[in-house]
Batch of 2 targets.
Target 1
Amino acid sequence: METFCPDEEILRGFIGGGGLGARMLQDETGPKTNPLGPDNPLMLFTGPLTGTRAITSSRYAVVAKSPLTGIAGEADSGGYWGALLKFAGYDGLMITGQAESPVYLWVHDGEVEIRDAGHLWGKDTFEVDEIIRGETHKKASVASIGQAGENLVAFACVMNEGKHSRAAGRTGLGAVMGSKKLKAVAVHGKDSPKVADPKALGDSVKGLAPVIVEKMKRYTLLGTPGGVVSNALISDLPVKNWTIGDWVKDAEVIGGERMAKTVLVGRYYCRGCVIGCGRTVRVDSGPYKGVDGGGPEYETLAGLGSLCLVNDLEAICMANELCNRYGIDTISAGGVIAFALEAYEKGFLTKGDTGGQELRWGDPSVVLDLVRKIAFREGIGDLLACGVRKASEELGKGTEGFAIHVKGLEPAFHDPRAMSSLAVGYATHNRGACHRGNSHALERYTIPDIGHTRVLGRMESGEKGTKTALLQNYSELFNSLKLCQFLFSCVPASSILGWVRAVTGWDMEMEEFLQAGERIFNLKRLYNMRHGVSRKDDTIPHRIATLRFADGGSKDFVPDLEPMLEEYYKARGWDADGGPTRRKLAELGLEHDAPPRGA
């Protein structure tokens, strides 16, 4: 084991978390790196605010080259793991090579131990959490993979907090962990990180906490599932593989309000959080009796619910628990299962492919069975475990029209036909069809101190390209500081910068702060360009670009991507093929990271 500390110029320029991970990924990997090979580093990085009094600051990033997309991979999780890694004396871990047999890491009080995990291989994440805490410390936090990561499912994720099920979900980094035969990383420690100005940080947090509690009280009450019905009203909830615009009555059956009245038994707060959006659910009777743990988030209710026409809340809770135990990203799982249902309906899959099983829309037993088959790569699950893009390529011509992905990543479950900024956001985000660029904030609220001063209409096109770039840059700061993006709407950027100053002691002004976010986003773009990404890939699925809903809250509308994309490139200082110009590279100090393009 080696320890290293980047110099201050790197830290100020790339902050931490996903930003520092992007810097290391660019330096350590390239087009020839096999995502499942020993040379692909698995990075688990905190940020400068992690473990401090800053609200929602117990997050960590997982970064590696993605086995799902083949480009930059990044995932993010809350809970306690990030803070406890800091308390153990480390800001992050970079893991390279491959073990000969299963192992886990025990990181505590300035020490890192490699321990045998042969007795853990084959067990799910709930079991692993309990066993490892018994072997290490009862208050340890355990980040682990389930059977999906062991079996190299391309969208396997990294889970932490046991039954509370916090997930570093996207881009398949659980498979990278599995390829290294690393079953888990357990962390614990008692040393809080040093803060440059604890009084300034404490005073700011004390003043902002009641504001956050008040503004986010709906999330406390209903969590992200509270958005199911309201999103359905504007056709933002995807239904039947993105083909139906009005599903409001069914949405009411699986939404947060019904969850609160039926299966909800508690709320979960990540360390340092005053919101408590996490759900704890229990099903005590019926065919899904025995569900007991973290409840489905909005994305899961959409992906394993509406996208597959399943309107049974208890069944979705069961599917969610299976995904949590196996370590499967519920967004990609929902996307690939919906793809399989449509492929069967249209004759691209037959009973000969499915082992005699009829893949019926709206049948919970089908969804549950496919989740299990994907985790263990059994039968048709072996194909689906590769994700939508590769499954479509395998099934052949005619399936691409309903293979919903961007750059190989299945979309998050918000529809660009409901909020047009998502079209340019999905098309250009470095992970693929990802909503963590937060472009949809443009249509919901303002963030005046970074320049977003007017709520834009859902179906407008003007300003969407320019403002999407702005929001993506700002999002990169949250991903690198390791703050929850719920703070977007209720904590001013000036206050976030104040936390950074108080923690680090840096004399950073807003211009430098925002430029760091822009630098991080552009570096990720340069990395993807090394892997062949260009304007041709900055698109959205054909179905979303062309299919107009016959009814619902976004009836007869499709986003006009091209003018938004032209505006976006101009705002970014990119050339016509979607690459940063020499001038932009020099401005951001990235001259040596890509061949210069344009003027």
Target 2
Amino acid sequence: MPTLHALFVAIDAYPNPKHVLEGCVADMQQFHLYLDTHCTKMGLAFRPLVLANEEATRDAIIAAFQHFQAAETDDQCLFFYAGHGARCESPEMFWALEPDQKTESIVCYDSRQPGGRDLMDKELSYLIWTAMQGKSMPLITVTDCCHSGRLREIIEAEPLRIRQIREVGAATPAESYLGFEHYKKGEDGQVSPPQARRVHLGAARDVETAKEVNVGGASRGIFTYCLVQALEAAGPLVSYTNLMNRVQMRVRANIADQSPQLETTFAADKNLRFLSNAVSAGPVTYLATYDRNLGWIVNAGAIHGLSVGDPANLTLLELVADHTPITIMEVMPDRSRIAGLDDRDKSKVYLVVVARHAVPKFEIILTPDSDPAAIMALQQGIGQYPSDFFRLGTHSEPADFLVRAKDNVLSLHKLQDDRPLFQRVPGYDAAAIKIFLARLEVVANWRQILELTNTQSAIKNEEITTMLFCVTEPGNYENNARVALANGQEVADFYYTFENAQWHKPAFQLKVTNTGQRPLWVSLLYLGHDFSITNQLLPKQMLAPGEEVWAQEIVGAEIFRTISLHIEDAFLAQGIQSIEEYFKLLICTEELNTDAFNQQGLAPDTGAASPLRSLDLRSRIRPEKRDWQAREIVVRIVRDMDLPEASKIGSRP
């Protein structure tokens, strides 16, 4: 029987009376009870191990990770911690991983005793990596501590208790970290711990505190309390993204300065169902909730492509449960004010989908030689499955894409380009038309995001600086590879090189720096040649003035900021020797979430069975005015087959 192996650590009774908490053990007991019930409903065995108070010493927590060794390949593993969190200066060896040069830790029972030590975040990464060897499921970590409105039942006169020990202290030498001998060491002196597949649910951002509140006469961590509430309300099939959106909305409605976080090793895992390896299917959903200052809001805004629209073409939302129509009254960067829910319970959260996007539609026309039967079938299909992103036009109008329906095959093309944009779809029957239109929707959505912009943004170009580097050492994909700034033209060229009788892929590094005077949030979207979209290289990061962050990928257990690019052999066989790739840098004055942008790509028309990515993602203080901006970075990958002895190195003028 599939089994959930869970390790629970909760500490209230720290030895120092100043550090004592009240709600951690209660949080652990509530979450333990929920998981026990969940496993019974889902047909899972439940194998828990609990360390509470004096049992939760540093050595005991480290030893308890052996609990996961009994897990079979397809079993689920979960680590829960409730207690104090802390921050300290980061050893210089880790600065490439820490934009603010700080590192986080969990405070064990004996951490502040003579000779005691916290369990550092890098050490936790090592323990997770060790525990997950040979496992097919991600390990789930849930931490209700610092650095990881109020509830209506809260006694307002009672101050909030903070799960943070304020003494930060000096940096612990990196060499003394648990498992340091297994960390990746670069020639540049930077070090990173091994990484495992992980889904992390954290109570707060790394610069925030997690709060204890009085709920029904008892102290509770608001994060765990809201997490269990959200799980019970959403049901067992909820995705991690949807779950944490629900938790975040509940917490933010009551605590102004605590923002729960979802982080994953791989972006696609955010769409997994809770404690499952199955992907949550269906359309992108958002959450409607009542805000005491703004009224009813939905957690999507301009940065997600929403707009109010105009009287003739309004953006319309609807409740998933009963299709109640909702209109957008005002769009902000990461949320929108909505109308239509005045008769609803203000204490509840409602699932919402976009019923109609108020965006200009792309024009799709059929080539003159298309089969009449296909034209009729497409017209009927579009009538049955209307799109917000494209419409079937006529040859008298400017077109964005061409559809060719010939010899019982459907294909999509750019204007004046005979190559299909994705794998041809055989047949004109209803099933084939539905598949073709679904793929067309993927392409149109990709184009809409590529063209996402905010012409009214007051964020100045000099506030955020991007530096695109090209690796100048053929075959070196390590972080210490020599680099040069890519050219400043509209498109940066990256060339394959041919040395020592073999081709070497080009590679890049991308650094984003806050060169302004205020904190800003950034996220990087990669828009692949196969119409995939991922925020995996930089999901989101708050940058204080002077801080910087690198786009990074995880390969195996290692973190790399040198990222290689490639053109598939199947393209080369068709004579395609260059392709263009796009990065979209989103900048916002408040926390942004770009997870909803992620989408799988489409298989190209090369005989390949799966999508091909040219980005080589190897299996190796809020301002008063809310504002956002989108910047585009274009790279061209070139493999010149006519010059096998070429000495081209990366980008050139």
